[in-house]
Amino acid sequence: MLTLFAWLTILVFMALIMMKKIHPFVGLALIPIIFTVLGSFFGLFTEAVAAYWEKPVSEVTLLEQFQAFGEWAADGMVTTSSTAYMLFFAILFFSVMLAVGLFDPLTRQILKIAKGDPLKILVGTGIISAVVSLSGDGTTTTLIVCSALIPIYRKLGLRLMDLAVILILMNTILNLLPWSGPTARVLAVLPEISANEILQSLVPGMLASVAFVMLVCVYRGLRERKRLGVSDLSIAEIDELMQSRQADGNVMTVTRSKPVMVFNAVLTLLALAVLMAGLFEPVFIFMAGTLIAFAVNFPKIPELKKFIDSTAPDVLQTVIMVIGAGVFMGLFTNSGMSSAIAQSMVNAFPASFGPSWPFITTLVSAPGGFFISNDAFFYGVLPVLAEAGQAYGFTQFEMGYASLMGQAFHMLSPLTAFIYLLLNLTKQDMGEWQREAGKWAAGIFVILIAVALLTGHLPAPVLPLGAWQFWLVLAAIAGAAIGIFMLVERSRKRKKAVAEEKEAELVQVGEAS
Asked: Which of 189, 378, 396, 447 is deepest in the core (most CB within 10 A)?
């Protein structure tokens, strides 16, 4: 029953988000609250509550369950608070640099190279995203890439969806580097694996995936070239586009002296260097950088107040998403629903799948990396999978390597904090973005597995085709995928029909007048 409630919580949330029936913040916070309250009437969480309050299960009251839910939600918000604060200061810091035009020279240079060709700009987006993603930090990558490229996309009328999709795909691949989150967790959980060993084994698949995403850039770039054509911009036209920055931006723009701009450039490079070196916590780096940037660029209080007022909407929209994710994680983890989902994925495969356990782990890692947090998956699920794998004769390396394949989908998860920054900067709807990026993420997933099989890092599966459980699991996965696709497609067609009707009405009104 607990497992059913856990899956229902996830599926209801995803369905409402995909169909645009609920705001992501409301969904992240409200849906788990509703399901935990409903579950409490069935006694689903009495054991978790009893353990939390350190008292016998028989003595747990309904009120104490509700009180525990509040504590769990607060625990989750505390867990994500450092990320929320970091995003808060990071957005303010880079907003200052955008306001003073620090990235304008880079934007102008890209325009000179691309000369208004959408194909070149999208290919350049892929290259820049890949290079910056080497830092291993999604927030930094998003802020740098978006700061440099969003003005170009807006000036040339390019779809910001392309930027959001390309950036997340590249960051997904480079996030497999040992100094990034998921691989670092694998190294912590499975001590027999070395960083060099896992890096050398991942590189072929990562290179193939990067090549695939570059082809995606070419495909989407050709599509945009067909839609917009190629603008052979002259130097004067580029300068004119750059001068229109103040009209295009949502944040106030100011002009600062050359010494101040040099100081801003040094401050930004220093902040990024210290961030990559890991000398201080990111939240402290961006807080200090923001305070210094405020003092230097806005010495007059009224001007600083005006800047903060202009930036507040972007900051608020991003931070509340992280807070909502904290509520979701706090309730989902402490109630035992996260563990129930993890255990259900492991239990779905009987002992007859033992000879293919690393391959099974890759399949489990896809929904595992999407539906539950990386901490819950790598610290909670992976040890169980690795222990079972070793019982079947597989090494820690094979199990750890296999568990990373599902990271192809993790960056699309609503539990990934920095995607709300990306979606806010590019003004994209979460459901549409997940659908658009998801099909290419599936390609990365297939490529990573194929290369792993070819190089021998992932043992070839020996699927028990005679086991009814295999076909049941396959049918369940296919049925769920088809069902979600049909729901989303029906919603999309309905909205398209409504939009066409409104457009036809406007045309009729125009003709009548």
From this structure: 378
CA distance 360 to 391: 14
Report how far apart, in Å, the C-alpha atoms of 96 and of each of 92, 154, 212, 252 are. Answer: 6, 19, 35, 9
Q: What is the residue range of 482's domain? A: 468-513
Give which of 216, 149, 243, 185 is closest to 403, Cα–Cα: 185
- Nearest Cα to Cα of residue 122 among 227, 241, 12, 254: 227
How many domains in the chain?
Answer: 1
**CB-CB contact of 104 with 242 (8 Å):** yes
Determine, yes or no, domain membership for 300: no
Rounded Cα–Cα distance for residues 170 and 123 (Å):
12
Assess if residue 497 is contained within a domain: yes
Give the tens place of pLDDT for each residue, 259-297: 888 999 999 889 878 876 778 888 898 899 999 999 999
Q: Specify the amino acid at residue 495.
A: K
Nearest to 380 by CA among 339, 410, 332, 346: 339
| Residue 81 CB-half CA count within 13 A | 7
C-alpha span between 84 and 149 (Å, rounded): 24
Distance CA 438, CA 509 (A): 40
pLDDT digits (tens, 9 = 90+) for 419-477: 888 998 898 888 889 888 988 999 999 999 999 999 988 888 776 655 666 666 667 76
> Is there a domain that residue 511 lies in?
yes
| Residue 506 domain flag | yes
C-alpha torsion angle, residues 476, 477, 478, 481 (rounded to 10): 120
